[in-house]
Amino acid sequence: MSLNSQSARVIDPVLTSVAQGYILPQRIGHVLFPAIPVLASGGKVIEFRRESFVNYKSRRAPGASVQRIQFGYEGKPFTLLNFAQDAPVPSEFVRVTKTLPGDDLGKRAVNTTMNSLNLTFEIEQAELATDPAHFRAINKLFLASQTQCDDPASDRIEDVEAATDQVRTACGTEHNHMAICSKGFKALKHCPKITERFKYTTSEGITPAMQARLFDLVQLGVGLSVWKRAWRMTSPSVRWT
Fold it and tell me: Tens digits of per-residue pLDDT, 129-178?
């Protein structure tokens, strides 16, 4: 609904003094793609090679020559993209809402544009993380129907540990963050081998923080965002599958 002099008066000050709103669902793009501030609109990202993982046979006899190694790096270019939105607030509407408690149209306009821009990043990050073309064959695991999260006989703990070993083999350090869709997390909550780990220690529901500790993670992000292609259209979830 567009903003006008009638819709600006979102509550009747005679009937109530409480302004009601909604809270956006959790977004998890930053779990896998943290923001990195830069001072220039373009440049190169330095990536060091794998000299630290090479066994150079450095043992030597007294007075013998010393093994000399060289290290290098490559710079991959980056360019910042510009994103901008405009949410004008007519001064007439500001005067109307001044009589309403806790209703700041300026702040609401800023929060609306910020949330919209952040949603754009969330969608792009989800598409980037879930595109199989961005990963080598050895870094992808195909789950058959009997090994997926919603199968009672599946072993998600074993799958995560196998993925941990693969990450460590590929980059030299174990994984510490994980992103999963809402449907997948709900399936994990009811996975028998996971519930078995918690049934004697707590009577509470299994939370993302509890599963993060089980998988030895710093953070387990559960994607809950929804979005619209256009107003009044279906609201698909941001896909973190």
Answer: 888 898 888 887 776 665 666 677 777 888 888 888 888 888 888 888 99
- In terms of average pLDDT, the best of 43-57, 88-102, 144-158 is 43-57
CA distances from 109 to 12, 27, 86, 103 (A): 21, 20, 9, 11
Q: Give me the half-sphere count of Cα atoms (radius 13 Å) on the Cβ side of residue 31.
A: 22
CA dihedral 9, 12, 17, 20 (to 10 degrees): -60
Which sign does the torsion angle of CA 108, 110, 112, 118 carry? negative
Helix or strand run (H / E) with residue 172: none
Q: How many other CB atoms are there within 10 angstroms of residue 211's CB atom? A: 24
Q: Kindly list the domain boundaries of the chain, sorted by start residue.
A: 12-35+80-130, 137-223
Read off the amino acid at residue 197.
R
